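Quick check before the chapter quiz. The format below is the same one you will see on the exam, so make sure you can read both the input and the output lines.
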Amino acid sequence: MNFYEILCAIIYHFNLYLYCFQCNSFSFVKKNIMSESIINILKAAPGKQHQVSHFDPEYTASLKKKETEPLLTANIKELIDLQAKLYADNRYAVLLVFQAMDAAGKDGTIKNVMSGLNPQGTEVYSFKSPSEVELDHDYFWRTYNCMPSRGNFGIFNRSYYEEVLIVKVHPEFLLRQRLPGIKTIADITDSFWKRRYRQINDLEQHLTENGTIILKFFLNVSKEQQKRRFLKRIEDSTRNWKFSSADVKEREHWDSYMLAYSDLLTHTSTEVAPWYVIPADNKSFMRYAVSEIILNRLKSIDLSYPELPETEMIRLKEAKQLLENEK
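Here is the expected output.
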């Protein structure tokens, strides 16, 4: 932990204990006050050069599990209320994008953070290898069809970002897309990837301008922690189904993936859709941090319940009177 991170943790705990003292209570459930400085530690600042190694996968802001779990519970309750307001307001959609190496905890984070939300207003999509039909369209096609409608949450467990991650690590996959001017791996130059980053930024700018709030999370697990989780999946018969031998094979390309993620953070963390690099070695902090970022973003927009016109209010009063006068 560097000096800046230590200072942020001290400020956070001072504010937390000050709040509890003022309330005459040391309960962590009542209020969630993760400081902006800590959130900024997790954000890949737009316009900057980034490397995954600059972000500590073990960072927890000195918070313990006994602190983060009740804070997460409190956040979920607030998210439930805000979801109702988001739906009623019907002006914004929320897209949550999760990217990570295997065993980082995407499924568990989605399950634990979004638990309790109305399933009618939440769609989760997991994108695997593209089908032949999907390969006959541009790479946005399959994900664009799944974008959330106004008033709803859309959650992408992997996304169009696979096109600058696994496809960059394995450029032979790109040949299946039969793109003009790309006949061999030698045709895939740095300028090709820069165009893809620009295309993604253009898409997200378009979505944002049309009312979609985009929150992007890279769950940053260390190589050592991934190994431990793989071994647990192998040794625990109830988790065997989560493991694939292909996961270990892909682990051999760890360094290439870290370079691809570093380029992704550098080129696609923008003012309208920044990346948050969430430490994933500690699952409790990871889930809390994700919930806090979602909550802070939703609180920053002007969500409100619609006000009925005067004529409708008159009808409501008439209906109320009729009901009250029933015998």
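If your answer matched, good. Residues 140 and 306 are 34 Å apart (CA to CA).
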